[in-house]
């Protein structure tokens, strides 16, 4: 039997009539948010920080803190961190401020090693278009972020919210910022070339009756990250049909489909079987990438382990 959707789910994921409104000031909706949405945010953030581990930050800003999902994950990983949580609706440990009024929220001082804005940008769509949201994020990175700090944006994995985030991404790159993850490509996002495409990650953990949590995210930095020419991010679920396995990957040369026939499966290319959305797959430097690149029995693929902490 399909799981019954509550008001907060319909208001934020279904009809989206609650987007941009002060629904957290309503006790029932706040409780539904804490039960339905916050656990997904915790899973998404935990997944991201496992994939891109950081050295312990000293100061973290949580913009659009809601019911504290980001803070719980951050404090769980970094117990000594100073966390500044900002939201326009009051709550325990919340600094009440409107992020639309100015880049630096009222009452906030100093710079931060990590800024997290989870499910915030899409809430601003009634007031700011995509260029406006990009300008706001650029302001956060300019005025609130340490020179070696990171800004993490997490958004729902709906097509419209994900594509809006990719539009923000392209404008931020034009403004001089760089993407540390998930992108291994600093050009215009290939997923925006067709209206039906978007980009998201998944965490295969059971939350609120779901088998996995889907989300879109960006980690922004001032410095150009080092990317090996052989590194490609898996940006699709495995597609197995008609005696073949296909994946979309995105990396230094853009977005491409790779394909391996079942009869060509060998120990050399076995990593393709284990690759999942969000993983990094190493392709041979000699592999010529086309619209549909065939992986042969001698093609050596390697699945990259999670890296060491980033300074």
Helical residues, percent: 10-25%
What is the CATH-assigned architecture of the largest domain? Answer: 3-Layer(aba) Sandwich
Provide the β-strand percentage band. Answer: 25-35%
**The CATH H-level homologous superfamily of the largest domain:** Vaccinia Virus protein VP39
Written overview of the protein:
By secondary structure, the protein is of the alpha/beta class. The protein folds into 2 domains: 215 residues, Vaccinia Virus protein VP39 (Rossmann fold), CATH 3.40.50; 73 residues. 24% of the residues lie in helices and 26% in strands. Strands 1, 2, 3, 4, 5, 6, 7 and 8 form an 8-stranded mixed beta sheet that branches. Strands 9, 10, 11, 12, 13, 14 and 15 form a 7-stranded mixed beta sheet that branches. Helix 4 links the parallel strand 1 and strand 2. The protein is globular.
Keywords:
311 residues, disordered C terminus, 7 helices, alpha/beta, 24% helix
Compact overview of the structure:
This protein is α/β, with parallel strands linked by helices. It has helices spanning 7-14, 27-36, 38-51, 69-77, 130-143, 159-174, 271-274; strands at residues 59-63, 82-87, 94-96, 112-118, 145-156, 178-181, 201-203, 213-221, 231-234, 239-241, 244-251, 254-261, 280-282, 292-294, 302-303.
Question: Which helices and strands, and how do they pair?
Answer:
Blueprint: H1 7-14, H2 27-36, H3 38-51, E1 59-63, H4 69-77, E2 82-87, E3 94-96, E4 112-118, H5 130-143, E5 145-156, H6 159-174, E6 178-181, E7 201-203, E8 213-221, E9 231-234, E10 239-241, E11 244-251, E12 254-261, H7 271-274, E13 280-282, E14 292-294, E15 302-303
Parallel strand pairs: 1-2, 1-4, 2-3, 4-5, 12-14
Antiparallel strand pairs: 5-8, 6-8, 7-8, 9-11, 9-13, 10-11, 11-12, 13-15
């Amino acid at each position: 039997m399909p799981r019954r959707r509550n008001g907060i789910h319909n208001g934020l994921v279904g009809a989206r009539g609650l987007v941009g409104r002060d629904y957290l000031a309503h006790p029932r909706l706040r409780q539904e948010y804490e039960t339905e949405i916050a656990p997904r945010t915790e899973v998404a953030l935990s997944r991201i920080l496992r994939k891109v581990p950081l050295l312990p930050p000293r100061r973290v800003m949580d913009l659009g803190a809601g019911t504290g999902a980001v803070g719980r994950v951050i404090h769980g990983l970094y117990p000594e961190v100073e966390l500044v949580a900002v939201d326009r609706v009051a709550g325990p440990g919340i600094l009440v401020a409107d992020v639309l009024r100015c880049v630096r929220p009222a009452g906030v001082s100093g710079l931060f090693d990590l800024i997290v804005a989870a499910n915030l940008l899409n809430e601003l769509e009634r007031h700011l278009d995509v260029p406006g949201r990009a300008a706001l994020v650029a302001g956060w990175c300019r005025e609130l972020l340490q020179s070696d700090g990171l800004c993490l944006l997490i958004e729902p994995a709906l097509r419209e919210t994900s594509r809006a985030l990719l539009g923000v991404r392209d404008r931020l790159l034009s403004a001089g910022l760089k993407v540390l993850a998930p992108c291994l490509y600093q050009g215009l996002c290939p997923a925006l070339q067709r209206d039906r495409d978007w980009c998201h990650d998944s965490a295969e953990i059971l939350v609120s009756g779901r088998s996995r949590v889907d989300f879109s995210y960006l980690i922004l930095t001032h410095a150009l990250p080092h990317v090996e020419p052989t590194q490609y991010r898996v940006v699709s679920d495995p597609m197995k049909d008609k005696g073949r396995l296909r994946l979309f990957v995105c990396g230094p040369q853009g977005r491409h489909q790779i394909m391996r026939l079942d009869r060509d499966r060998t120990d050399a290319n076995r990593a393709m079987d284990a690759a999942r959305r969000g993983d990094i797959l190493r392709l041979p430097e000699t592999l010529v990438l086309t619209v549909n690149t065939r992986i042969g029995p001698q093609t050596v693929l390697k699945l990259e382990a999670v890296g060491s902490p980033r300074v």
